[in-house]
Design brief:
With about 160 residues, this protein is an alpha/beta fold. About 30% of the residues lie in helices and about 30% in strands. It has two domains: about 30 residues; about 110 residues. The chain has two helices and eight strands. It has an eight-stranded mixed sheet with strand order 7-1-4-3-2-6-5-8, with no helix packed on it.
Length: about 160
């Protein structure tokens, strides 16, 4: 009787550990921000097409995470996607003429913002706008252009 009670306790412990591991995996896959990511300064960039970029996506420079996307809205005047990013406070020396691109990582096609440093001596300040941006490449558009060019080229 006592032996079966001990087995039941161990089974319960392993089930609880399994649920804990699944919870941590779900948090990692869903890209939920870490606790320290909210400290930093905001910068904004406008893109013609963000193609699946989501809030809380990573902002990287040279492969190192320097911040997160905090808000995505549509600019009512230019009809471009306005992406607000929070850059961590420790990266306060990013040149003000840096450029931002929307890139894809991994097999699942997760989108993130990649920053390329510029050459200006001034650093980004809170609320600055990144003027040089490159929108995401949309595979369907590229294939459509290729097909259209092939069809129009074959008629000649």
């Amino acid at each position: 009787m006592q032996n079966s009670r001990i087995v039941e306790i161990w089974v319960g412990v392993f089930v609880a550990l399994g649920f804990g591991a699944l919870f941590l995996l779900a948090m990692k896959v869903s890209n939920i921000a870490a606790l320290g990511d909210s400290d930093g300064y905001p910068v904004v960039a406008n893109f013609q097409n963000i193609a699946g970029l989501r809030e809380k996506a990573q902002v990287t420079m040279a492969g190192v995470q320097v911040g997160r996307v905090t808000r995505i809205t549509l600019d009512p005047e230019s009809f471009e996607a306005q992406v607000e990013m929070t850059i961590r406070a420790e990266f306060d020396n990013i040149p003000s003429d840096s450029s931002a691109s929307i890139l894809t990582s991994g097999l699942l096609g997760e989108k993130y913002v990649g920053l390329e440093p510029g050459g200006a001596l001034e650093s980004l300040q809170p609320g600055d706008e990144l003027m040089l941006t490159q929108s995401a490449l949309v595979l369907e558009k590229i294939i459509g252009q290729f097909m259209f060019n092939q069809a129009s080229g074959s008629e000649n």
